[in-house]
Every structure is written in C-alpha cells, then in structure tokens.
Amino acid sequence: MSKASSKKSSSSVLLSPRAIAAQILSEAESSSVYVDYVLEKHLQRSAFPARDRALVTALVHGVSRWRARLDAEIQQHFRHHFDEAQPFVKNVLRGAVYQMLFMDRIPAYAAVDEAVEMIQLRFGNNFSRLSNGVLRNIQRAPMEWPPVASLVEKKDLKTLAQMFSHPEWLIKRWVEQFGWEQTAALAEASNRIPPVTVRVVRPEENLKPWLKKMKANEVKPEPVEHMPNFYNLPHLDDITSLPGFEEGWFTVQDSSAGMVAHLVAPQPGETILDLCAAPGGKALHIAEMIGTGRVVAIDLDPYRLELIAEAAERLSLKVHLVVADSRTFAAKPANAVVVDAPCSGLGVLSRRSDLRWRRRPKDITDLVELQKEILTDAAELVKSGGRLIYSTCTIDPEENEKVVEWFLEHHQEFRLEPAPGYVHASFCDERGYVRTFPHRHNVDGGFAARLVKS
Which of 79, 254, 411, 426 is most buried, judged by most C-beta within 10 A? Predict the structure, then answer.
C-alpha cells in the first residue's frame, strides 16, 4: 500500500461515524456540556449522509445511557483501572461493546476491528493489542446478568445499578421512595428509546390532512391513550422533514407536558403568565386553547425566547415574550400563572441520555429552594379566584408533592383543586396531583398541581 493510500485510510477511520461518536462522548465527558449539545455541534458541521448521522446519534445516546453496564463488561478484562484510561480509549471500547450487545444489525467483527484500528492509530500497538484482547473476550463471553427478580429479592443495589446503568445514589433514592420492584421497573423504563411524540395543532382543520399525508409517507402515528391529538411516531432522524411541519400542522410535545395546558383550562379573554417558559411547548399549547386571550411567556434566556417566537410563527400562534427572572418578575395579577419549574429532570432520563451521570443529590436540594422562591413570587401574580399551576418533569417527591405541601402551608389563601376534573384520572394520584411515571403510563415522568387562590 502506498503512503498516500495509507494516509487516506487512516484519515477515513478517524473520521468515521464510530470515531466521531467516540469523540463526541469524550468531549462531553471531559466538560460540563451535555452530550446533546456536543452531538448537535458535530452533526451541524459534518457532511454525513442520513444513515451515518443515525449511527452517530444511536451510538452517542446508547453509550451514554448504558455507560455503567458497558464499563462493568470492559473492566472484567481490562488489565488496568479502566476509569483512568484516556477518554477516547474508553469511549471507543464502550462504543464497540454497545454495538456487540445492543445493535443487532452490526456484525461484532466490524465493531471490534474498527475500534482496534482507531485505538492503534491514536495510541499505538500496546493499547490496540490490549483493546483487541478485551473486546474479543467480551465477544466470546459477555457477562451473564442475574434475573431482575433475584436482585430485588436479594436487595442487591450495586448490581441492579450496574445492570440498568444508573448511579447507585439514584437507585438507592428510588428504593427509599418507591420500593424495590418499582425502582427496577423505573430504571428499565429509563433505558428505553422513547418515541417522538407530537401534538396536532388546530386538529379540526389539520388532523385529517396530516394523517392522510403520514399514510402516504408510510409513517404510522400511534394515538396516545387518553390524550386527544397526541401521537407517537417511530423514531425519526429529522422530524422537520415530515409533511405538515413547515405548515404548522403539528409540534413536538410529550403528552405528559400537554397535560399542563389542560390543567390550566384557559378561557377566552383570560391573561395567562407562563414563568420559566422556554422551550415554549406549554405556552404555545395554552395559546392555541385560549383563542382570544393573552399568553405571556417569561424566561431569563433571550435566545430560548427567540426559539419560542420562531415556533409561534410556524404554528400561527400569538405569544407575548418577556425577558425576566421569574423570581423577581412583576406584573398585574393574571387569571392563571404557570410555573414549569427548573427541576432535576429525573422523569425524562430516557430522552436525556447523560443526565443521570450529571445529577448529584445536592442538585435536588438546591433546586427545591429555587422552586420555592419561584412559587412564592408567582403567588403574587395570581388574581383572586385565579389558579397557579406548578409542574415539573421530575418524579422526585422532594421537588413535587413536598414543594406543594410547603407552599400551601405558607400560602393558605391557596387550595389544591383535584386534577381529575381536567386531566384523565389514569394520570392522577389519589391526592389530586397529575403524577406520571414512564414505566406505568408510557409517557415521560412528570408532576403537576392546580392551586386555586381564594
């Protein structure tokens, strides 16, 4: 082989989808930036065809999601401390093991050969020989994980955390909050690749033509039970390429988030304030429902508010935008105020693949204080007889019920109004809260409460 062809071959290996995926994972692991942002940056500047973009995305999210389990497999055969290896080495090996264990369409030999070659080109023969031995051993004899029921029976927290690839502190917290069986089911659900959920906008005019267009494009939307006009779509690489997107016939929104607008139950002519509004799904949903009323979206981030403006234009909806800190925002009291509070996001771990590794117990403590601050300010913005909607995308009771209980104790002019009058009872608990779990409801985990001011 000539030097020129050898150099070209080396370059193509280090610029392959698998190598780019390892680079994205390494960048995210070495910084405080979420993997989604690093992935988006790389894909925007790449010239990959759709198939390669899909492979990069699948590898990045799959390795992020299953990192602890992959590391357990690798450490069995790694002669040194695997956690001390170079980030690129770690992520190349993780990517290869993920392909062997979780991606049926990729031959194991292809995953192993390219991983070894990438490491040889970057780090030399010693590392490549070690990597080859590790991967061949895993290929021959992957770990045999015990049945979930036996781990639950033995209360084996460490193995359960490794097998479902969650931090031990989080599994321990869930066990204390929900019990062993629910924790195992919740951890398993958090590893599923979620569908893309969309809401059809102005269904009376758009639903029939949209469904017709989907059928013509061989896409089969599955209706979400008890959530009219919400549909799950098969995993798609580019939702914006679907017919009806540019026309504003539909918008991406999980059905658990859609429940918040139903809990608001906006009436024509009302003024609704949405604090912490970005990325804007709830404000836009409310704007569609209210018709002639006024919806004001408040957020501290001007860039994210601009995204709401773009979405509102595409959907032909009117939302007033205000850049402000929700803790100090002042305005005339409104008919309803929505606090979609900053939270730990523990209900959407399936959608945010590396969030589980970013969170710490102290984050929840800090977030609870912030949630209380925002609610305290929001209380002053609600008219007498108006309502305050508190929602999160977490399943943690400290951020949900306990925050509401604290608020009601300190603001006795408010009372909890049961959610089943506004949201289907299957999504509500016996206390009157909206309470969704991925493993029970097949939607994102979340919480919402409707509080009425006397």
Answer: 254
Q: What is the pLDDT of residue 9?
A: 58
Pick 196-245's CATH classification: 3.30.70, 3.20.20, 3.90.1580, 1.20.1050.
3.30.70
DSSP code per residue over 19-83: HHHHHHHHHHHTSSS-HHHHHHHHHHH----HHHHHHHHHHHHHHHHTHHHHHHHHHTT-SS-GG
Contact 286, 391 (CB under 8 A): no
Per the annotation, the verdict on 428 as an active-site residue is no
H/E segment holding residue 120: helix 108-123
Which CATH architecture group holds 255-453? 3-Layer(aba) Sandwich (3.40)
The pLDDT score that the predictor gives to residue 136 is 95
State which amino acid sits at residue 334.
A
N-terminal to C-terminal alpha carbon distance within the chain = 83
**Model pLDDT for residues 328-337, shown as the tens digit of each residue:** 999 999 999 9
CATH for 3-140 is 1.10.940.10
- The average pLDDT across 338-344 equals 97
- 82 neighbors 75 (Cβ within 8 angstroms): yes
CA distances from 331 to 117, 146, 318, 397 (A): 62, 58, 19, 31
Q: Tell me: pLDDT of 237 over 80.
A: no
Give domain limits for the chain: 3-140, 148-189, 196-245, 255-453
Name the catalytic one among 276, 343, 393, 428. 393
